[in-house]
Design brief:
The protein has 8 helices and 6 strands. By secondary structure, the protein is α+β, with helices and mostly antiparallel strands. Keywords: Membrane, Transmembrane, Transmembrane helix.
Length: about 270
Amino acid sequence: MGLAEFALVSRKWKPAVLMLKSTNDYSNLLEYIAPNVLESRLSNISSLVQNSYPQIWIDTYLFVLAIFFVLFAAAFSIALQATASQREKLWYPLLILIVPVIIAFWTSRRRSEYYEKLKIFNELLQKYLKEFNSTDMAQQIKWQHRRLREDDTAESLALPGPLSRWQVVMIIEVIQIDPEDIHPLVDGMDMVLPSYNAAAEDIVLDIGPLDRTNRHPMEEQDIGLDDAHTPQSSLHYPLPPEYNQSSPSPQPRQEIIELTSISPSSPPTYHR
């Protein structure tokens, strides 16, 4: 169950911002943590967004500035061609076009570094949320971030107007967890403790042949008592004969077959 939701919005003409309500509006979350603790944590996340999130509003202004210099160079070139005395200075607009080239190079470099900065921001945000969870896990709440879902509304995210007007990058939310669920340890080792029900159902069966060489003395005593009380069977079966390797193997019987010679006979004569 979600207790509070905070939307991270990226804007074209202004820096990215974490949209927040007043502290008293998060009444469900204030039942678990104090208001001053909530304000300090939201302030830390907002400062992280302001300092580490890759902003795109600078690229928007640079793009508009590059278009302005291109149009200014074109207008300046037309003005020089209108006057015959200034035609020798037609190469001046070419100097103005150097500025858009520099802006294009700078913006392309910023775009190549965008995903790397976004990765660093996600790692820092994960670190912040992990620190929050290390202390709030005792209150059975958890901080996490996710993408925008279809059931999210502008009212729940503190966004004025329709939700389609805003570019929501991610949503940081605080949810209530069940104490029977799996909890991460607070020591930062990323170990996981199973719940009581999962541990009770974890049964290990010892399957395999009985090894009498490696046995506890008490276990041998128990097995000896069991063998003493086991009734002996009255049926006895003969054992197979022992195999003696030194005994000579029987020789195969040799049969001599005599072939009698057949005398050749003349072929029969036929009478007409």
